[in-house]
Amino acid sequence: MIFIAGATGFVGRHLIRSLSSGKYKVRCLVRSDKEAGLCTSPGFETTKGDITDSESLKGKLEGVGIVVHLVGIIKEQGEGTFEKIHIEGTKNLVDEAKFSDVEHFFFQSALGADLRSPFKYLRTKAEAEEIVKGSGLPYTIFRPSLIIGPGDGFTENIKELLRLGPLVPVPGDGKARFQPIFIDDWVRCFLKIIDSRNFKNRVFEFGGPEHLSYNEILKIIMKEMEIKNPIVHIPPAITKAGLPFIQVFRSLGRTFGMKMPDVSPEQIDLLQIDNITDMDSVEHLFGFRPVGFEETIRKTLRNQPDKT
């Protein structure tokens, strides 16, 4: 049986769909009845719990062979801190997996994860990796670059940004490079690891087949959306200084049915650094060629995310 924590998130929703052929038994960890529907509709089990609450996990991994840990955040909100979710949550799930003699622990990390990183997001992902690697459990860790597909947060934020007005603001010079990979290709990579011993006790860094600057990514999305507004580059420091005012406008916008991207200072800083690896990484590691970004964004924008 496969146990999925984070089944109702962006990656989890697409993974659930791929596992619904009847070949796999799946148990999803959910926090509410509202979330459960996504997992029960294809006939999977659900169990209530939260990785940040160790007591809620007790007994939930009985009979489980593979734990899939997809829970993560890119922005802290209230009690939902990087430390609580990435570090404490991972420790709780690993402890329960050890108690239940789980055979394989999968952890979704991020390209750039590093214990020495100045960014809390990447540093806490790396700390979570250390918990997994030091657990004694057979493990697989994925470090993907940007994952793009229907409902992904990155593309949704850009879509909201493009709809706001006649100018397209970009924090910084937009020259930092990324390596976006289509969610269906991420799923193909995942499906290759669950039935093979060759992928255990390894960390995989990978991304799509192109290195694209933020400017290039933005222009491709704009072309697909048929938007020709001029791009304006704004110094990151000025962008971050204006965030409190943006939050006010976000609240006002909701009143009139408008959305504005919700970003943190750290996310703005992360947009200024490269997030890339070998362009042939998927082909070398998993044996197939992923689709390019233009096709990825075309499929992403023409399909609406699932509603739960």
Secondary structure layout:
Blueprint: E1 2-5, H1 10-18, E2 26-30, H2 33-40, E3 45-48, H3 54-57, E4 66-69, H4 82-99, E5 104-108, H5 120-133, E6 139-144, E7 147-148, H6 153-162, E8 168-171, E9 177-178, E10 181-182, H7 183-194, E11 202-206, E12 212-213, H8 214-225, E13 231-234, H9 236-241, H10 243-255, H11 265-270, H12 281-286, H13 293-301
Parallel strand pairs: 1-2, 1-4, 2-3, 4-5, 5-6, 6-11, 7-10, 8-13
Antiparallel strand pairs: 9-12
Helix pairs in contact: 4-5, 8-13
Strand order of the largest sheet: 3-2-1-4-5-6-11
Largest sheet: 7 strands, parallel
Can you count the helices?
13
Q: Based on helices, strands and strand pairing, what is the structural class?
A: alpha/beta
Structure description:
The chain is an alpha/beta fold. It has a domain at 2-144: 3-Layer(aba) Sandwich (Rossmann fold), CATH 3.40.50.720. The chain has helices spanning 10-18, 33-40, 54-57, 82-99, 120-133, 153-162, 183-194, 214-225, 236-241, 243-255, 265-270, 281-286, 293-301; strands spanning 2-5, 26-30, 45-48, 66-69, 104-108, 139-144, 147-148, 168-171, 177-178, 181-182, 202-206, 212-213, 231-234. The strands form four sheets. Strands 3-2-1-4-5-6-11 form a seven-stranded parallel β-sheet, with helices on both faces. Helix 4 packs parallel to helix 5 (120-133) and helix 8 (214-225) crosses helix 13 (293-301). It is globular, with a radius of gyration of 19 Å.
